[in-house]
Amino acid sequence: MGLFLGVDISDDYSQISSYDVAGGEAVSVTLGGEGAAERIPTVICKKSSVDEWLIGEEAYRQALMGNGTLVDRLVRLAENNGFATLDGVKYRAEQLMARFVGKVIALAQRQYDETEIESIVFTLHEAGPRINDILIKVAKSCGVPREHVHIYSHTESFVYYILSSPAEIWSNQVSLFDLRENGLFHYEMRAVRGRKPVVIEAGRTKMAESFSLSVLDTPAGEKLVDNILSSCAERELSKKAVSSVVLTGKGFETINWATDFLKVICNRRRVFQSSQLFAQGAAHAAYDLSLEKSNYPYLLICDGRLSSTVSTYAVFDGRREQIVFASAGTNWYEAGTKATFIVDDIHEVELIVTSVMSGMSQTIPISLDEFPARPNKTTRIELSVTFSSENRMTVKIKDCGFGDIFPSSGLVIKGEYVIS
Fold it and tell me: CB–CB of 261/247 below 8 Å?
């Protein structure tokens, strides 16, 4: 059996975990041996005059010694379709990302002496179409088929991490505080019971309070951050039935300095610290996605997932039936489909967007008047629905004509819509 990998990629550092099927848990993979740091700085260095590439702390060391050129912020570089010139050669961000991710994946392959990857989930703080497409290509260059590659938000990975924990951990609401270089983030997750399937609702908020982690280098700075965290925790946890609090991020590598903050979050709650939460949650997801039947039979509504179902109605074999283009709870990057219809005495297509939480529906009418006028039932259209985020939908309707009698005009009606 091959590997089931979760790879957390951020601009500051990256992490990788592998799902241990026998033990039923996600195991951290490090750049060094046992006891090595789990966080791998997301940087790459090309050594001067040779085709040798390094990542992580070793990349920093070689660059500081003058033995090569360093490139950092690889995620941002990829999102901006940027490039870097190393040793007189211009490298696209996609190429640099491929080298970095390839070396990260190779860590797991060497640790487990296994080259085949059954499933891989990349998890990102901010996912988007460009970086997602690049990671799909990167995985393909590492020999992983497209159908075995998935891109999840940190919120999705957080949910998988919690769902893989004992049920009493998430008997009520769960809170996560993520303290990283680019800010303090608060995640919430709750199970909406009494529904079939049970709905798991989760979200993320960036706290307005902002500071650099370097402030923790002094006792006065630690006290300041402790006060800030205490205020945030009191605000976010008050009047909520929170059964568990989880801490993650580089800022929480040590927590003995945050005495007041700990008093707030430990008040009648379970408190845990996980240094590799998102990568481990992604590894649990990678394994689950390989199964015929999921271990998590829930409807997940959160960042990265659709909160509404998109459908239309059509007559098939004499019956009026609902045609679903995207279902609530589906990862937006993997959502959407297309279907072909014959136009029967209509001048517009109506898409219906139905919220899973409220049950409310909105109708999106799309006029077909741009297409050539033809006799009834002599126009075929192809309707496709895709997404660029969990709340941004693109609809394309193509005039397919009707065989040789009414050839296609080649016209395409395109619309972009914000959905709830």
Answer: no
**Which residues face 262 on adjacent strands?**
none
Owning domain of residue 121: 3-156
**Residues 331 and 303: beta-carbon distance below 8 Å:** no
Residues 6+ apart with CB under 8 A from 335: 306, 326, 327, 385, 386, 387
Residue 295 in domain: no
Say how many CA atoms lie within 13 Å of 217 toward its Cβ.
5
E-strand stretches of 73-165:
83-86, 89-92, 117-124, 149-153
Helices (H), 217-258: 219-237
* Residue 136 exposed, middle or buried by CB count within 10 Å (0-12, 13-18, 19+): middle
What's the CA gap between 356 and 330, in Å, rounded? 12
pTM: 0.92
> Count of domains in the chain?
3
Q: Which two tokens stand for residue 67?
A: 């033995």
Q: Which two tokens stand for residue 170?
A: 């998430």
Residue 357 φ then ψ, to 5°: -80, -45
Same domain, 253 and 326: no
Cβ burial of 294 (10 Å; 0-12, 13-18, 19+) is exposed
Residues 6+ apart with CB under 8 A from 364: 350, 351, 352, 353, 395, 415, 417
What are the tens digits of pLDDT across the range 243-264? 999 999 999 999 999 999 999 9
Within 8 A by CB and 6+ apart from 211, the residues are 224, 225, 228
DSSP one-letter code for 251? G
Domain boundary among 130, 156, 182: 156
pLDDT digits (tens, 9 = 90+) for 25-48: 999 998 765 545 689 999 999 999
Q: Which H/E stretch holds residue 7?
A: strand 3-9
Question: How far is Cα 192 from Cα 189, in angstroms, rounded to an integer?
Answer: 10
